Amino acid sequence: MAATDEGMNNSKAAEETAKEAKKAAAKKAQAKNKSKPLSTSNTVLDTNQQLLIRHMKDVTDYGGLERDAFSTLVNPGIKGTDAKLLSYHGPPEDLVSKMVKPAKGSAFVHATPAQLSILEPLLRFFIVDNKGNEEEVYFSDYALEDRLLKLSSLRRANSGEESMEKVAQRGSSVGIERFAWEYHNKHEGDKIVQASLDLYFGSLSELVNLNYLKFLFTNGLKQVEAPPVGDSTEKTRLDDRLQNLSKEIADKTKLLRPGTSASKTKNVEAAVEKIKDNFRQLKVAVGWAVPAGQRSELLRLFRGGNTTSSADAGTDQNGGKKLENFLSGVKGTQKVLLLNLRTYDIEFNQNGSIKLSIQYVASTDNYLSRDSSDVLGANNFSAGTLNERQIQIRRDLIDTEKVWADGYLGYMLDYELQMNPKGHYVYLQLDRLRYESDVLTAMIHRRELENERESRSGADDQMKLWRSFEKSVGSVYKHLKLNIKSDRYSVFLEKLVETNSVYVLSTKFDNTGALVLAKPSRAKAKEMSDLKKWLKDAVDDASSKEKKKEGKKDEEKNFKPGVGAVKLGHSGVSTRNILYTRLGDIIKVAMEIAEIRDDANFILGTWYPSQSGVPGYSSKSPDEYEMIYDIPISLEYFGQFFYKNVVLPELDEWPFRKFYTSMLDMVTQVLNRVTNYKLRIQFGWTTFSTYYDIAPPAGILDEYHLNQTQTNINNEPYRSQRPVETYYVLYAKQLSHRNRHGNRTKDEKSGIYHYAIGASRGLAQEFNFKAQDVPQFQAANIEASNAESLSRALILPQDVDIEMIGNSLHRNGDLVYVDSRQALGTFANSILTLGGYYRVVKSTHTITTAGYNTTLGCVFERRTHG
Predict the structure, then answer these.
(1) Are 483 and 426 in contact (CB under 8 A)?
(2) Which of 47, 576, 457, 111 is nearest to 298 (CA)?
(3) Where among 371, 403, 429 does a domain terminate?
(4) Per-residue model confidence as pLDDT tens digits over 81-108
(5) What is the pTM of this model?
(6) Within this chain, do residues 315 and 429 fall inside the same structural domain, yes or no?
(7) Using an 8 Å Cβ cutoff, are 839 and 781 in contact?
């Protein structure tokens, strides 16, 4: 009996030892995988997304984009648009700074007051169309050299009447009082670029001068009654505008019958292009210019004295090299703004003069915020889209007495009546209804101009009838969109699956409880088929209606996470295949469906995962960065996001800007959740307009190009035979821990300019420090600053506003270095945070008769020691 008990005890001891060994093995395996416990409070979908981020290093190593600079990442093949999506690969802090800064820019930034005094502000206005055609708007034609010579000749001939003629006059008493613009994106709904223009008119007759009415045609909408860009003022007469409208109506009328296709008929294709892209913008050239003069006089300002860079030290005693660098830097300040009118105010003064104040926003800002950039495809007129589908609608929903007999709607009603007299339905296309609405709108505009020409006043029954036709078309159009709402929602997700950029990550927990990851692979046909079915069910319109009927509040219960979903995070053998794609691939699909306007391009930057607490990235290599494009997104998680943001609110349109900011919110939450919001990451975006190529070789971000003098057509950066390209740049608000220590030479190679307090040269004139007023950001910076400091004192970081001599070198997202060491010593910089690296969040620029000034609003980013 005793032997038996002893054997049982030995067996139990062995069993306990085995259990302990098993637990030790599980802990070892868990440590090896560097996997923190996944949150159990979130849904399975959220858990899968967290797992992708926690193992992002393994995920991105497979299927990631090329890492040899970003020329390989240009995607000109996005269907339906020539707009580009680029992915940058380099230090996050370099992206915006390198992009907006000119070659040799430091020679201008650190110039002496005497050197800067020779410059004059540059401010020129152009009306441009979507093809790159442009015409300059001049202020006071009588100030032009050829006009002055003509006036002089007429006076000598005693021809006073001719000298005062008003024909084609370009404003003898019209001037610019003020032009101001700012880059700012503090809130998600804000436009990045806003501008205002104040014009002075000496009399009422000057206000209606057609030369200046062109400013009001730049609202980004179709302006068929406006003269083509480049036509002389004589062609802006009423008869010419009527002729333009008649041609536009004739072109569009070709599209009002079934069977006409833009892909079959060249003339029809041209008409569709006009409908889609007929817009115009105000282009403003701003910056500094060097007045014409003697080179020898300029050289005197650059001989001897302090040099603008260490590379020039001890060389070029005659100043030639320094002068060339300065002139190159000045030319680099010349930038272009593309604007759309938002609103305007008119102020009449007692002396008869008039002030016209016009408010503008960036052209692409305006476009991306409107329904014309709908990522659900409402404005996609490519072959095979839902806009070309035959959609059923009941006849009794159409007021047949308010239908234009010669239009598309009237033709189809008549056709259905002949084919099926007792039928209750008619089948229509959204794109044809859109064309009919455009034709009716143009006919109404033409009628208004004819009434103006004939001086007809009072009620116009014909216009009233056309307006009723247009209203009827709009009502039918709205009903048709409702009938295919579920299909429109499905298109986005189906396109995403068809991109061939869907991957699968197989995961399981083995017997020890350790998480095992298989190498990611492309999704197979069976997995793609199941995914398509799941996505179709996820956006089923019936579920949304049922939810409203029952009055349920829990959104997650209506969202099906897929059949056979296994909850991760527990021991035992369980397997889960996580289907995912990359953030950049989702944005590409949105650009394709929206057929994004060709001049609106996007650049995705990089970020430091280790600074955000993502496992797998060593703290010993804090500057290891990943591309934002490559952030993995679980398709189930994205399906949930799509369901909550689009299906539940039953959106009719989803403008690209709203989609983009919503995506960034989602990605930010996903990344911050990894560390329970202890190490926050923030993204920002800014805009940059240029004629230059962006991608290497020879692009703005090419290292070789950065060291060369920029040249282009006519040696004028603001004049070109090609349209201006606008790029939206997405960047992470992060800064290298190892490479940024306040070294001016190194920083300025990356476009991070240094501004010293108390310096006798340079652009900065005044530094106004102030305590941060955003509580969350303030708390994060206090924590970061005190963690770096040897002192235990509570230090409140200071933001700064910098008053500067006017320049166009900075915009939101840019980095600058405020150097207080010369004036206040190293203590102020390293301990009191008066100085260091700052990120520009707002830049305001003003040009008036008093001069050209710039104010930068900067938030504290990081201190430096020493």
Answers:
(1) no
(2) 111
(3) 371
(4) 888 888 888 888 888 888 888 777 888 9
(5) 0.80
(6) no
(7) no
